[in-house]
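[step 3/7] fold_predict: job queued, chain A
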Amino acid sequence: MSVGQRKIAALVKRVLWLVFFAQAIASSFVDLPYNYWLGWLPALGAIAISVVTRRSVQQQIAVERPAPVEVEPPVTGRWSALNSPADKVPSHGTHSLGQTYAIDITAESEDPEHGRPRPVWFWPIAWRNQDFPAFGAPLYAVADATVVHAEDGQRDHLSRSSLAGVLYFWLIEGVGRSIGGTRRIVGNHVVLDLGEGTYAVYAHVRQGSLKVRAGDKVLAGQVLGQCGNSGNSTEPHVHFQLMDGPDLDTARGVPFTWRGVGVPANGEVFTVAEASTTVS
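[step 4/7] structure written:
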């Protein structure tokens, strides 16, 4: 499937979901002029497009899987990995939005008495972002690059770290963000052109924290912004990935390895020294 075909498929899928939810809402107020079961056709069409697109990407990856691109880590300090491509591919259960080899990382406190809040069943329903050591942590350019896209206008919501919060996240907020499109899913984000057809993405950036804009040239280790909790995010964390194009809707994921760290596995705690990354 070509880039153009993937772009069209993404657009058609979004339209189909919009039609499905629009008629579901409308049916609460008026009688639709067709059989109830026909209302499911848009949803079934969107699911079919997702299946076909996924199989196409899987086939291309099996034949053309690229070698990992080595870059600097995007953070400093003590962090742990979640949804890592070291454990499974695609790491987030989908190839969409270039996420095949994406990774999530969250900061871990040096003080065990005041560490990162852990998921709970019932209470508290949500935590403040400031309760997480990742919130506000600086994000660094992983290589000399050109900023392709940068936006930080979306809000940082509360954590979704209880059962009620997670159910709300998946059943209500997640659906709404999916309908809203890619930018509502990744939240505030930065896309860097690293050269040679490789692009880096930082998602869920903190609102108003970006220090760069599209067209800026940055150096490896330069501060780009801060870790936040915008978009489809249950707690403040960094979502990082490499892709073969600048458009999240059509790009395919590219494997990465962080210099001095590698690719940390799920639950693995790693530390990045500040001197090895930051630019003064």
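[step 5/7] annotate
The chain has four helices and 13 strands.
The first strand starts at residue 69 and ends at 71.
exit 0
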